[in-house]
Specification:
By secondary structure, the protein is α/β, with parallel strands linked by helices. The protein has two domains: about 25-200, Flavin prenyltransferase-like (Rossmann fold), CATH 3.40.50; about 210-295 and about 320-410, 3-Layer(aba) Sandwich (Rossmann fold). It has 15 helices and 21 strands. It has helices at about 35-50, 60-65, 70-75, 95, 110-120, 125-130, 145-150, 150-160, 190-200, 235-245, 270-280, 325-330, 350-360, 370-375, 395-420, and strands at about 25-30, 55-60, 105-110, 135-140, 165, 170-175, 180-185, 210-215, 220, 225, 250-255, 265-270, 290, 300, 320, 340-345, 365-370, 380, 380-385, 390, 395. The protein has an eight-stranded mixed beta sheet with strand order 12-11-8-13-16-17-19-20, with helices on both faces. The longest helix is centred in the last third of the chain and has 23 residues, at about 395-420. The protein starts with about 25 loop residues before the first strand and ends with a helix. Bound molecules: cytidine-5'-triphosphate. Cytidine-5'-triphosphate binds near residues 212, 297, 325, 326 and 343. Cytidine-5'-triphosphate (CTP) binds near residues 212, 295, 342 and 344.
Amino acid sequence: MAVRLVYTLAPYSLQNNDVADIAHKKIVLGVTGGIAAYKAAELTREFARNGIEVQVVMTEAARALVAPATFQALSGRPVFSDLWDARADDGMAHIELSRGKDAIVVAPATGDFLAKLANGLADDLLSTLCLARECPLIVAPAMNRQMWDNPATRRNLEQLRRDGVAILGPASGDQACGEVGMGRMIEAREIAEAVIGSLAPKLLRGTRVLITAGPTFEPIDAVRGITNRSSGKMGYAIARAALDAGARVTLISGPVSLAAPAGAEVTRVETAAQMFEAVKRNVAHAGIYIGVAAVADYRADRPRRDKIKKTDRSQLELQLVPNPDILAWVAARPRPPFCVGFAAESHNLNANADQKRRRKKVQLMVANLAQEAIGSDDNEVTLLDDQGTHRLARAPKTAVARQVIAHIAKLYGAWRRKAG
Ligand code: CTP
């Protein structure tokens, strides 16, 4: 009888895990005095939700726009503004606050603040921290379109780029002043995504990863079909996490209303048959295959081109035929990639998922309770592989995805060494 080794029963903690993740990262979030300062509150929350420790530093002008108490509550830490704040060790806030940090993010960064940075001025806590930093600096500009177009701002940005400062945005659109044009700060979620991407360890650098996501839609007639409630959020989060880990990602997506992850090569499909064809076209070069899609197991035998009319018969029979099992097909190839499946179960989670893992002959099965995962922004998953089971704590799908990718990277390295 085979003995299964359970190597941990405790859930991974987002704050304290040994897998390479961004959860233990620390940043300074600088907030300057633009109207977009209110968006920095959402950004603080976004970082905190992903387990990143945020130290907020505000300029005087920012304090006139948003109360520091908001940031204190969202970050769980006191907010600093004063160069000589006695709460910092040695009274050296400008050195102390950026020590051991992984990045300084300034959002919003006003035209005035960019000018200071470009010229190395240091006349308040935030500008002094930026000048005295040892870590990367990332800025998200926000200003009126004329300020943005001004040659002085263009010069400053050029200088900042040359100095190695990462610049996120701005975007074009409605401005607080009532005008329309370039200069709006990009959304908090986009800033968080970019910062997390830059902080993430490059565990899969250069590896080609093929991912399926979302539901499939199997037509019955011209207007009806069989589908399921998969939102695609988990698959897209996996694609994002793989990209952030340095992978080259091909994403084959069923019908979802999500924006394509920047940097992925995306093929949109509708039916399981189309998904299968797209997988066949892309699988040869993949080092890793991750089937997150909720593929319909059956399709209508003969979908009708026209719309089926209602009749007075009391029953309508629909003949269904099975779809191919894409994951099992990929795993059965002569030289298969490292294969990962996602098992959606309604009960007996671990036993059913492990059975599925063995039946489909895949290296890793990620199990989740369908009723809890579908449509939600959070997920709680268990990883099942040859070594045993590994339960991850409930967390946003983006954070879960990074842990799943870190686990895959670890197993993939060992699997490749074994395969020679
Ligand atoms: N899968 C697939 N092709 C199918 C069905 C499933 O590639 N026709 C993949 C999914 O992408 C997922 C894994 O198989 O990675 C498990 O999917 P799931 O729907 O949980 O399993 P099924 O094999 O369909 O089993 P059941 O629906 O009976 O639970």
